[in-house]
Amino acid sequence: MRISVLEILIGDLRGGHLFRYGDIIRFAVDEAYANDAQAPLLSLSMLAGDPAQQRAFFFDSLNPVLNSLGEGKLPAFFQNLLPEGGLRDHIVAERNCDPNDHFEILAACGGDLPGNVYALPARDGHLTAQLVTQNKESIEVSVVDDPLEDGVSISGMQPKIALLKKGGRFVAARNLDSGHVIGKLPTSQFDLLPQVEELSLRLATAAGVNACTATLQPLELIDASHWYDLGDTDQFLAVERFDRDRPGRLHAEDFAQILSVDPARKYTGGTYADIASVMLAVDGLGMSAVKELLRRIAVSELVGNYDFHLKNIGVLHFPGRRIELSPAYDIVAYSVYMGGRGHALAFSAGMKKHHMLDPASLRGFCDALGLSEPALRAVISDVCARALEHWPEMIEASTLRPEQKKRLVEFIKSRPVLQSFLRRRRTPHPWRDQAAPTNQPPEVDVP
Ligand SMILES: Nc1ncnc2c1ncn2[C@@H]1O[C@H](COP(=O)(O)OP(=O)(O)OP(=O)(O)O)[C@@H](O)[C@H]1O
Ligand SMILES: [Mg+2]
Description:
With about 450 residues, this protein is α+β, with helices and mostly antiparallel strands. It contains 14 helices and 14 strands. Strand 6 (about 160-165) and strand 7 form a beta hairpin. The longest helix is centred in the last third of the chain and has 25 residues, at about 375-395. It starts with a strand and ends in a 22-residue tail after the last helix. Adenosine-5'-triphosphate (ATP) binds near residues 114, 154, 240 and 312.
């Protein structure tokens, strides 16, 4: 039997090995890691209640979290570490491997994965392979090549490159240096996309969301080759990475990983209530994270960010197993480009994906979690109040094209949740829909 082996490290600590034999890929956890209740966590999806349950979880050879279902696919946690979109095409071409060869793509990017995980060619592959097969078969361990020099993995479908900020310029990220930035590039598909995303993140911040730091930068500051068609704009979005330079790497994972869902199911593999349910169970997240989730949902609804899926929210793992919600990223007012309705995920099981934020969806969300509604309604009201106070000026002062500003404002104004808030507040505002009679009962029951 031919086996390929990668060593999986969290920082400099070995968690175990990834084995590929045939089209099966399996994560075999080291004894020492399994027995160390203080060791840094690889994933909340791998956390059990007590030490005995933890061992049972790690050493269950059929555990779906640790085993792929065949077809050469990686278990979900690892599959979500792979690059996507143009970055994936680039890595596949450089590594000269099959685009569906998950194991090889992971190995190609194994030195620079999201968070603080490494997947490196195993030093003692033969020994550990024997452990896995319990010496029942003769084994031939295949050589796995070292990671590519520029093998950086960042997920997501939009055109992007990994950069390092150096002396006021942006160079290709090729080593473990500091200054890590995700360069989100303009595209001929969406006019001024970096500007729209930069504004969207600022609108979110003004509405009380804790968003990551991202600035518009001239494309000419990039000293790195890339392979994208950039359209005819001259700026890109430089997103500062929250999982780098802390100093060194900070472990991070997204909710597709936490819920053990393949990236292909990032729109269907869970609901907002599933995310909130994890939050309520994890020390350090709890109700304040649930409120932040709802704040991000409300902002997404107002600006038309139809893409708030399982990979667009995640957590940070600090030393001592302390968990925090990651700053928000990838908030984009797609209403500037296209009509759309509702959200990327359903609010709770049994609800349709395109449900808007309204009394029914909020009730479904709260019922699924056993939460009472008023505290969460207050979050929605607060987002509306802040949006009305800050957004008109911010949008007007932005560098979007006049027709883009108009489309965005018209979209926001037409949101039932905002009009309901305005009717209840009864104070004049230029965004108030004058056509709606003031004594009409609110469509959305927010205070
Ligand atoms: N500030 C950040 N720090 C660290 N990692 C980040 C940051 N922003 C984004 N990421 C990671 O990079 C991935 C891709 O970023 P982003 O979601 O912005 O790209 P995208 O191509 O627009 O995604 P999508 O396919 O959802 O449209 C995210 O899923 C997340 O894992
Ligand atoms: Mg994304």
